Amino acid sequence: MITLGIETSCDETAAAVLRDEKLLSSAVSSSVHLHRKFGGIVPEIASRFHLEFINPVLDKALKQAKIKLTDVDLVAVTSAPGLVGSLLVGLSFAKGLSFGLNKPFIGVNHIHAHLLSAFVGEKRPPFPFIGTAVSGGHTLIALVEDFHRIKTLGKTRDDAAGEAFDKAAKLLGLPYPGGPELEKLAARVKESPVRLTCARLEDSLDFSFSGIKTAVLYKAREMSSSPTDRARIAHSFQKAVVDVIAQKSVQACVQRGIKTLAGGGGVVCNGPLRERLKELTAEYGIDLKLAPMSFCGDNAAMIGYLGYNLFLRGKQSRYDLTPKATSRL
Ligand code: KG4
Ligand code: ZN
To answer: Exposure check for the chain: N or C terminus, fewer CB within 10 A?
Structure first.
């Protein structure tokens, strides 16, 4: 069965083709360069970019997969959460394809797709497992019982981790998107005397990142703007965020007696986070499955993968499906 995945929830326009669970192609075109001068995503620019690039990206994915559009049996598309205008482009496009081809389509939750992105083209461990999705819009720990049975165990109460990285980076004078820039700046120092911590929210798997962001603001004002001082702040911020994500993810596994942890989302590109997760899971005898760097950021391979598996479980969407900026997680 051939599944076409489509993703347009934020600033990446992406299409991918899978034959059953096997990935045949994945094409991504990003508008991030257009947002940089504004210091963050401009929704209108993002949706116009999707409109312009969705056809070429689809053509690229079909060509790479060596298939024709008429070979597609199922269209899977991100329908929530994300920027409504951006989602609308992909969702309308997918509905049009589905209608024209007379093939089913299915709307997919973007965060759930991140939770499962480690398994695209890989052998999947048996359910259940704990999944952690860390992106620009969400930070979620979930019990993944099956593709259609995902239970939230913890989530952020304010900013998402990626958003906190982006805001902290901005306060340190770094360009958007700040996550990778902050990681580079932090790597300039081996350790840091700056004290920064995340709210622990004891007895809960929830997160809060807004306090540490404000603490970065005060440290940036208080300390000099020398590269070393900025790097020290970045280093301490990153360490605090990485520690709390890794610690709560492992805590979820321990609480539930589960021996597999899967992770995905843009922030999982972060080297120190990957390292900390490796260390902690090794300590607790937990098998760690992280999405490869190529599938951490937004992509359509994970959308097609989840959509296909939901379809196998009898799920399908109707044409009156509308995009949702938020999703009940
Ligand atoms: O999953 P993603 O591509 O898009 C959303 O669904 O939001 O995540 C984007 C986020 C941005 O906030 C970006 O700064 C962050 O992931 N990010 C990183 C790194 N690479 C991307 N954060 C920290 N370290 C990185 N290396
Ligand atoms: Zn994402």
So the answer is: N
